[in-house]
Design brief:
26% strand; globular; single chain
Length: 360
């Protein structure tokens, strides 16, 4: 048996409990977790903004060591250090055939599986976003593990599984920031901090961080922000004022709120690009009129998992880490145990801190 954080029902508090994990069956891998990041998506799953079968063990950003493999597994062996990939591509759906593996139609098929049982009553448990990283150990499909980069501590490598791939990919793949361009990043959480660093790596000439909290300015500047704006009704005007009233070339929205998406759009120049990374609820309606869409010539695009192919992008990110261009530790503002996850959720709701990291 292993300890895990279970969400028993939508909107219910997390429960720390023991679960029974089966031995890995065919095509399955058992992993002992070293660390797991607490992502806003976990909060969205817990409160019902995003739906998965419950009860479930959440956590989708993690890294650890393989302790056992099932029949037919050839890509890893016991003792291998791995990063969990919560959205493995099938390689055969329409999106995958187009090379858009981040839109794989079958990536989340595993969330409906029963992967473990609660020890106290034998209740079936589902694996959140495929990998159930809020547990001391987990059992996942072999496609959900990727080799951990050499030279990167496992506790840091956990962040590569979501926050860094998403923030980096939003800048480099979705927005395709070019050297000399100006960038605004809305939301200085884990993904926002990764996006700020990615904009610096891309050679952006001005990087504006925007957040509701004045307390995050030092953190944002350490990640690469050249300017910091505390969010208000005048945010778009302030951001445009920092670029000669033209507006930034690119805005990266990491919050997922209608008002923030609209502000990000308004802060870009004519012909500018806004990439939406944040996951909002169905009630968050963003409105535009037909004339402004024509006049401003701006582009608004969604971004799933940073439009990344984890197998290809992890080695690139590892090089940035080893060369000192990307500081994974900068994303982490607190290290906690499983019991600290509810408080980490509350901090996210309050707009406090960057990434909370569960260290086992």
């Amino acid at each position: 048996m292993v300890r895990a954080a279970v969400v028993p029902a939508v909107g219910a508090p997390l429960e720390l409990t023991e679960i029974d994990l089966p031995d890995p069956g065919p095509g399955r891998v058992r992993v002992r977790l070293a660390a797991a990041g607490v992502c806003h998506s976990d909060l969205s799953l817990s409160n019902g903004t995003m739906r998965v079968p419950v009860p479930a063990v959440l956590g989708h950003e993690g890294a650890g060591t393989v302790v056992a493999v099932g029949e037919g597994v050839t890509n890893v062996a016991p003792g291998a250090e791995v990063v969990l990939n919560w959205a493995p591509s099938c390689g055969s759906c329409h999106a995958c055939s187009l090379g858009e593996v981040w839109l794989c139609a079958n990536a989340l098929n595993g969330v409906a599986d029963v992967y473990a049982r609660r020890a106290s009553d034998g209740a079936d448990l589902h694996p959140g976003l495929n990998v159930a990283a809020f547990a001391e150990e987990t059992v996942v499909a072999s496609s959900c593990v990727l080799p951990a980069p050499a030279g990167v501590p496992l506790t840091d490598a956990a962040l590569l599984g979501c926050a860094v791939l998403t923030g980096y990919g939003a800048v480099h793949h979705s927005a395709q920031v070019r050297p000399g361009e100006t960038v605004a990043v809305y939301g200085v959480g884990g993904v926002g901090l990764a996006a700020l660093q990615a904009a610096r790596i891309a050679g952006a000439s001005k990087i504006v961080a925007v957040d509701v909290s004045p307390a995050k300015e030092e953190l944002a500047r350490a990640a690469g922000a050249t300017d910091y704006v505390v969010a208000s009704e005048e945010t778009a005007r302030e951001v445009r004022g920092l670029t000669g009233k033209q507006g930034v070339d690119v805005a990266i929205e990491c919050v997922g709120r209608a008002a923030t998406i609209r502000t990000a759009w308004d802060s870009t120049r004519r012909g500018g690009r806004t990439t939406v990374v944040g996951i909002g609820g169905k009630d968050q309606q963003v409105t535009f009129n037909a004339l402004e869409i024509f006049h401003w010539g701006r582009t608004l695009s969604g971004c799933v998992y940073g439009n990344c192919d984890p197998a290809k992008d992890l080695p690139v990110l590892a090089d940035h880490v080893r060369e000192g261009r990307l500081d994974l530790g900068l994303l982490v503002t607190e290290r906690i145990g499983l019991e600290g996850i509810p408080a980490a959720f509350e901090n996210m709701l309050a707009g406090k801190g960057g990434r909370a990291l569960v260290v086992f």
